[in-house]
C-alpha cells in the first residue's frame, strides 16, 4: 500500500473515533495485553529475525540491545497497556465554560488531534507505547518504524489490530508503514491533508530531516543538553548526589547532565569531593580555566563547542560562574531547553531559576534524570518536546488531544 | 538592520521578559493608549502617505479602506490597549500541581512562547493588537507588515516603543521589520534558532508561502469554508435567521457561511422562505439537483468545486442531505475545519454534531459569525487557527503562553 493511501485511510477512519466509548478503548488495550502475553513465542520468533539481520549487518551492541524483546521487555509492553487502560480518558472533557452577555455559552472541549504520524528508530516497544496512547485518546496512528525492527513491529501491530477487531475499535485506525524504504518518510511528511502531527523519535539526523522537510506540524526535541547549577547557597551533600546521579546513572539518555555550573564562592568546598566521585566513576571532565585549577591534570580544557555538546557518555563540561544570572544566561544560551536544575537552599534564587530558565522542565534540588512521562505520572509518553508550542517536555495522553470551541446558542445572530 | 540581527535581538531580550511585573506591562499598554490619543494627527499624517501611494498604485477600494486609520479606528486601537491591560496576566500561573510517590512536587506553569513573528497584510490596526497581546504575555514580537502600510505601521511601532521606554518595558522586545522587500519573509521563517512561532495573517497565498517555507512552527488558517446544517428537527424561525445572518451580515470574512446543508425532510418547509430572503438580499445560490428543484431558475447548478469554495461574497452553495451523518461527513470532507453550526431542537443530534464535526468552533443554534477572539471574550486575537496543535480557533492572550514543568525536590535522585 502506498503511503498516501495509508494516510487517506487513517484520516477517513479518524473522524469516527471521537465517539468510540471509553469502554471499547480500554477493552482493546486489555485484550492487546492478553494477546501479547499469549503470543510471546511468536513475538520472540519475529524479533529473532531482526536480531539476526542486525548481527549480520554488524550493528553496534547498543543498537542490538535496543532491538531485543525479551520477557522483561514484553512484560514492560503489557504493563504500559494496563497503565494506559487505567488512565482517565481525556476525550470529551470540557475544561472551561463561560457565558457571554448575548447568552451564548462557550466551552472548550478536548478532542483528538486526528491522525498522528510517528517516525521512530530501533526500539520496537515504541510501537505498543505510541499505539496504546493513540487508541486511548481516539487518534488514528501511522507507525513508521526503523527497518532494523520491521519484523518485530509488524507482529506487534498485527496483535494490536487483532485486539481492536475483537473489541470493536476500528483496526484501520492503526496503520503500519510496512516498508524499509527511507524515501517514504519524505513523502509522508508532506501529506498535511491527511496527517495532523508528526512525531519523530530517534537520532538528531532523523529529527532534523523530518523538521526540514515536513509541511505538517512536528513535535520534537533535537537533543538534551541538560545542566545542573550548584548555587552559592547549595547544600553540598545534595549537590554531590544530584550532580553524580544526573551524569552517571544513565549517561546515554537525553535527560542526563552534560554541563555542570558551579558558583565561584562554593567551588572550593564543592569541587574536590565532586572530582573525587567523578574520577572514581570514570567520568572525563572538560572545564573552564577556573574549573581546571582544582585538578588541571585530570580536567581537560573545554572549548566553546563543549558548552553546546550532548556527549551521551561519561564526559562532562564544567564551568565556574560568578552569579545566578550568569548561570541562567549560560543555560539559555548554550542549552537545548530540555531539563535543567538548580541546587540551592535559597528561596529567592530557586524561584528566580524556575521562572527564568527557558526549559521544558526546570528543577530545584532534584536530578534532571526525572524528565520522563511515566516518572512524571503521565503514563507512557509519545515523545519529548523542546519546542514552544502545544507541549513542552514529555508528551502524554492529554497532549494527544486539543480543546475545540463548543458553543450553545438559542438562535443568536451577530448584529 | 538585517532580519537575522532583528531576530537575534528579540531572542536575547525575550529571556528577561518573564520576570517583568504585570504592573509594568499594564502601564506600558496604558501609556501607549495615551500616546496614540495624543499623536493622532501624526498617525493620520503617516497614514495619509500610505493611502496616497495606494491610490497611485490603483489598489482596490476594499484594500484602501482596510488601510485607513480614521478616528473610529484609532479609538478601536486605544480600546484594545485598555482591554488587554485589564485582562489577567497569564504568565506564571500554575495550572496544575501534583506530588509523586518519591516526594517530588511537579507543576505546570504558564510561560511566554518567547519570540513571536507575525507576518500580516494591509490593516495597520493589527500592529497594535498583536503587540499589545505580546507585551501582556511577556513575549518579544517581530512585526512584518505589508509594504502598503509601512508608514502607518512604523509610526505605531515607534509609539509603542516610546511607551515601553517610559515605563521600563524593554523596547527591543518590539521589533519592526522596516522593509518593503518581500524576500525578507522567506529569510525570516528560516530563523528557527531565534523565532519560536510564526503567525501569518492575510490572503491564502501569503499563508501557503509561509507554511511551505517555514522551519518554525506556524499557527494559521488558510480559509473559512463554514457550514450551517438545518436539521430535520430545526426550529424554522431560528434556521432562517441564523442562515441569513451567517451568509449576509458580512460575507467577506472567514467565519461567514459558504455552504448550507438542509435535511430533506424539512426542506419543503424551509427552502421557499429561505430562498425568498436570500433573493431579496441579492445572494447567488448554487445548489445540488434537489436544492435546485425549489427554484431551478434562480439556483444555479453547483459543481464539485463549489463544495470546497470560500466565496467571501454573496454566493452560497446549497445541498440537500438525508441524514445528520451525511451532513457531518460533508462538513468533515469539504470544510476547512473553521466554524460550523447545526440548527436543531433535538438534543441527541445537537450533541452528536458537537462531538463529531472536526472544526475549531462548533455551534448549536447560533450563527457561525461569532468566531472571533473578542466576541468569545478572549480580548483581542493574534489570529485564528484551523490546525490541530497548540490552539484551535481564535488565538488569545493565554495561547501566547505554554506550560512548562516546574519540579520542587529536596535532593531526589533517580534509582
TrEMBL record, chains A, B:
Alphabetical GO CC annotations of the entry are:
cytoplasm
Q: Name one process (GO BP) from the record.
A: L-proline biosynthetic process
Q: Which InterPro entries match?
A: Ald_DH/histidinol_DH, Ald_DH_C, Ald_DH_N, Aldehyde_DH_dom, G-glutamylP_reductase_CS, Glu-5-SA_DH, GPR_dom
Residues annotated as signal peptide: none
Which CDD domains is this protein grouped with?
A: ALDH_F18-19_ProA-GPR (cd07079)
Q: RNA-binding: present as a keyword of the record?
A: no
- Its biological purpose: Catalyzes the NADPH-dependent reduction of L-glutamate 5-phosphate into L-glutamate 5-semialdehyde and phosphate. The product spontaneously undergoes cyclization to form 1-pyrroline-5-carboxylate.
**Do you know which NCBIfam families this protein is assigned to?**
PRK00197.1, proA
Similarity annotation:
Belongs to the gamma-glutamyl phosphate reductase family.
Q: What is this protein called?
A: Gamma-glutamyl phosphate reductase
What organism does this protein naturally occur in? Desulfurobacterium atlanticum
Gene of this entry: proA
Amino acid at each position: 500500500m502506498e503511503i498516501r493511501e495509508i494516510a487517506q485511510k487513517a484520516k477517513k477512519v479518524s473522524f469516527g473515533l471521537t465517539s468510540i466509548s471509553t469502554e471499547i478503548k480500554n477493552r482493546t488495550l486489555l485484550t492487546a495485553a492478553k494477546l501479547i502475553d499469549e503470543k510471546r513465542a511468536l513475538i520472540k520468533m519475529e524479533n529473532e529475525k531482526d536480531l539476526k539481520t542486525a548481527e549480520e549487518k554488524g550493528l553496534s551492541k547498543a543498537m542490538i540491545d535496543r532491538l531485543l524483546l525479551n520477557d522483561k521487555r514484553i512484560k514492560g509492553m503489557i504493563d504500559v497497556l494496563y497503565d494506559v487502560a487505567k488512565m482517565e480518558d481525556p476525550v470529551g472533557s470540557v475544561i472551561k465554560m463561560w457565558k457571554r452577555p448575548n447568552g451564548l455559552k462557550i466551552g472548550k472541549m478536548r478532542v483528538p488531534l486526528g491522525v498522528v504520524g510517528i517516525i521512530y528508530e530501533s526500539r520496537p516497544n515504541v510501537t505498543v507505547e505510541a499505539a496504546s496512547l493513540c487508541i486511548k485518546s481516539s487518534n488514528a496512528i501511522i507507525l513508521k518504524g526503523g527497518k532494523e525492527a520491521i519484523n518485530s513491529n509488524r507482529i506487534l501491530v498485527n496483535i494490536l489490530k487483532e485486539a481492536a477487531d475483537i473489541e470493536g475499535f476500528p483496526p484501520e485506525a492503526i496503520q503500519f508503514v510496512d516498508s524499509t524504504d527511507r524515501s517514504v518518510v519524505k513523502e509522508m511528511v508532506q501529506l498535511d491533508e491527511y496527517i495532523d502531527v508528526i512525531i519523530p523519535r530517534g537520532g538528531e539526523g532523523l529529527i532534523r530531516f523530518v523538521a526540514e522537510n515536513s509541511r505538517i506540524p512536528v513535535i520534537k526535541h533535537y537533543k538534551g543538553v541538560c545542566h545542573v547549577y550548584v548555587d552559592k547557597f547549595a547544600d553540598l551533600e545534595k549537590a554531590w548526589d544530584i550532580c553524580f546521579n544526573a551524569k552517571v546513572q544513565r549517561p546515554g539518555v537525553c535527560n542526563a547532565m552534560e554541563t555542570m555550573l558551579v558558583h565561584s564562592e562554593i567551588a572550593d568546598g564543592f569541587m574536590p569531593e565532586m572530582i573525587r566521585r567523578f574520577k572514581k566513576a570514570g567520568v572525563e571532565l572538560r572545564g573552564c580555566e577556573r574549573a581546571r585549577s582544582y585538578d588541571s591534570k585530570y580536567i581537560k580544557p573545554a572549548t566553546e563547542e563543549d558548552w553546546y555538546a550532548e556527549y551521551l557518555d561519561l564526559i562532562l563540561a564544567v564551568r565556574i560562574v560568578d552569579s545566578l544570572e550568569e548561570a541562567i544566561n549560560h543555560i539559555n544560551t548554550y542549552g537545548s531547553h530540555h531539563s535543567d536544575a538548580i541546587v540551592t537552599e535559597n528561596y529567592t534564587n530557586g524561584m528566580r531559576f524556575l521562572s527564568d530558565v527557558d526549559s521544558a522542565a526546570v528543577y530545584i534540588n532534584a536530578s534532571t534524570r526525572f524528565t520522563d512521562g511515566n516518572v512524571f505520572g503521565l503514563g507512557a509518553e509519545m515523545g519529548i518536546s523542546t519546542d514552544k508550542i502545544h507541549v513542552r517536555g514529555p508528551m502524554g495522553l492529554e497532549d494527544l488531544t486539543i480543546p475545540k470551541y463548543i458553543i450553545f446558542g438559542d438562535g443568536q445572530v451577530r448584529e
